[in-house]
Amino acid sequence: MKNAYDILVVGGGHAGVEAALAAARLGKRTALISIDPGAIARMSCNPSIGGLAKGHLVREIDVLGGEMAKATDASGIQFKLLNRSKGRAVWSPRAQADKFRYEDYMQRVIKNTPGLDVIAGDATELLLKANRITGIRLRDGALVPGRICILTNGTFLRGKIHIGDIQIPAGRYGELPSIGISDQLKALGFSVKRLKTGTPSRITKRSIDFDVLEIQAGDPDPLPFSYATKNFHPKNIPCWLAYTNTQTHDILRSALDRSPLYTGKIEGTGPRYCPSIEDKIVRFSDKAAHQLFLEPEWEGSSQWYVNGFSSSLPVDIQIRALRSVRGLERAEFIKIGYAIEYDYFPSHQIRRSLETKEIHGLYFAGQINGTSGYEEAAAQGLMAALNAVRSIEDKTPLVPERHEAYIGVLIDDLCSKETSEPYRMFTSLAEYRLLLRWDNAHLRLLEYVREAGLQSAEMIETFEKTRNETRVLEKKYSATRILPGNPLQIPLDQPSALSLLIRRQELDERHLPLLREHYFPEYGVDAVDQAFVLTRYEGYIDRQFKQVEKMRQLENRHIPTGLDFHRVPSLSNEGREKLIKFRPESIGQASRIRGISPADIQVLLIYLQK
Ligand SMILES: Cc1cc2nc3c(=O)[nH]c(=O)nc-3n(C[C@H](O)[C@H](O)[C@H](O)COP(=O)(O)OP(=O)(O)OC[C@H]3O[C@@H](n4cnc5c(N)ncnc54)[C@H](O)[C@@H]3O)c2cc1C
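A: This is the predicted complex of the input protein with flavin-adenine dinucleotide.
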């Protein structure tokens, strides 16, 4: 079969979009196969991007040359930097998007990308020859030849919606599920499991009594997600806060015997961190109220999303329960909440490149790997495409380490941990949080940006300039003395080193514009800020780098592909079993797999030394 395409991307969700764009931009003939091209980049659940740790992922996607940050800046209707009162490590941007503008933006970019074809079709079968991808068969029988396939089917694989005792085969409400691929892969020996997630009702704006709700506005001085966005003046459309009450909880509790979650109709596990409302009242039964955020789905939207009220209870119960909330007594429902169950492939079956271990040229990215979230999906889509292109070009995979990026944490976790619930990124999953700040994605990933080849020369030059200026400024901050009566209006009796004032927190972020204006006018805003953070947290950052160094020796100890762990003597039974299952690529990765003990690691090290 003639290889018409280099790369086939199945699925036009958040993983598929980034994968297809990256592959085509890197010069590979790419086809994006999607059941409904009009639904490309659709936000299945709430119309928001970013948030804790997810905002970090979006920044990393942006510096590596992905599109999500730009699309968010172009379509956002409210922007907030979360956790601003806490330490830098956990600041994270979040935006409320106009979901139609977001889709339109992405679909336009895709349309205008040379070398990228969109094919409307339902991929039902992978075409294989000697364990290698040769193409895809569509439901209508058409064959699409290609040498690499990136599967990004999201929640569509044998998707099934639950509302009370009603079950509807679907990938999302009103969209057909994907049937064929997971059965084929199962037959080929892949392990396939079920997960579930859920979405709340959408109600009309006119039925909400805003007068009794709390307003939640965005930042008055919003910051963009993308380093490329200039002249940023987005809308600041508020969201609103409501609370459930004991009456709401009583209504929900009275119907638990009609909930598919509790009657056993749903086999898949849902996200613990994002539970349905019925799950919340069971697990946190002592709580008298839960927050509900009311969010517009687009600018001028008549349809509002009830964040926090995800449910699969029967329709009558969802309606009664929501109408018991103050401010929502007259709620008119446009869409009812539902849960969705779908197939996923436990991620021990992929390598760090996101290529499957069993089939050459087959990559998995997004929800199909057991993750949840647009940002997690987009990050994987981008990395899968980068590595697929590199495999065509005979280059080694490009994967940041855990201390370099949240993307590194995500991929390492996927390859070393077993997920029994949807995996979502949190700052707490990163052990080197202070190194992985939202504000320094461009500096910590600079070498990867160069190697990835997706970023413009001009942008790389800007990043390099910031890095060089930051280095100079760090030294200058130690050498500069601030005098009494200084223009920063810091009260001082005697001269003091600038670095000392920063560490003692007498000088904080609010002083930076004046600091730059009066002391370092020739340096960029970004560099002045970066040097400030590095000075403020110097001790902690140094300590984290020392930990990284200690771990590096283990990370660098490569485990040969195909090593027969049966032949390694003295491993514990569980350790051996896990090594065979995960086939880690380094000792560092092996050490993070649950069930592999420090003693197993020693045994392995000695074996490799021999
Ligand atoms: C009801 C619901 C609620 C959710 N709630 C949350 C939440 O609360 N929090 C959260 O973080 N995430 C939630 N998610 C998950 C979030 O939507 C996903 O994590 C994210 O969209 C995954 O991106 P993806 O690219 O992997 O897949 P999706 O965005 O699901 O996109 C999959 C794409 O693949 C296409 N496709 C599938 N199969 C085929 C095929 N065989 N042939 C061609 N095209 C195909 C589909 O048409 C679609 O375009 C929810 C999802 C749903 C459906």
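The longest strand covers residues 143-151. The radius of gyration is 25 Å.
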